[in-house]
Description:
This protein is α+β, with helices and mostly antiparallel strands. The protein has two helices and five strands, in the order βββββαα. The chain has helices spanning 52-64, 66-77; strands spanning 4-8, 11-14, 24-29, 32-37, 43-48. Strand 1 and strand 2 (11-14) form a beta hairpin.
Amino acid sequence: MSPTVFRESSYRFFFFSREEERMHIHVQSTEGEAKFWLEPEIELAKNHRFSRQQLKEIEALIEARYDELRNSWKEHFRH
């Protein structure tokens, strides 16, 4: 299961239900795929085919909607 938190522009922001515990978000579009840590700070974990410009754009979207991402994570993974 990989619930979508939101879509913006051509990007889909989501997480996998059964993955590591450290808070992070996956981002996917037809042009590439990336994973960003959300804690202890926003940081690129993996990148596949996104340009530096796209990564900057994605990181800005993550920063702008950080609270939403964090709350969605906590809601989805609560025990």
